[in-house]
Write a structure and sequence with these properties.
Belongs to the DoxX family. The chain is mostly helical. It starts with 7 loop residues before the first helix and ends with a helix.
Amino acid sequence: MPIPATWSARLLSVMRIVVALVFFSHGISKFFGLPPFPMPMNPLLYVAGVLEVVGGGMLIIGLFTRPVAFVLSGMSAVAYFMAHLPQGPFPIANGGEAAVLYCFVFLYLAAAGGGAWSVDAGRARG
């Protein structure tokens, strides 16, 4: 039995929250070493870390979901093309699967919004 379509907006929120929490953890790793970040930090990684913490936090609560997700989609695309593609064309071989997935999940969120359980939805109702 499939999940009823009436759950779509709620499951969109669940997906947004889970993806944002995992994305947020990348920034926490960069700044706080939880877990330890595996390479030395450089200015580009500091920018990525700020976007991961601030943007991920905003997506967790669903605040300004569409513009934030659009920016994070672009950041993930840049991460793939700069850090992973030079190591080879296949994401499974160059370690870029997460960057590709983040890019397209965030692009979807930029189009779909934050779902039923988001600050954006609460602001629209009020």
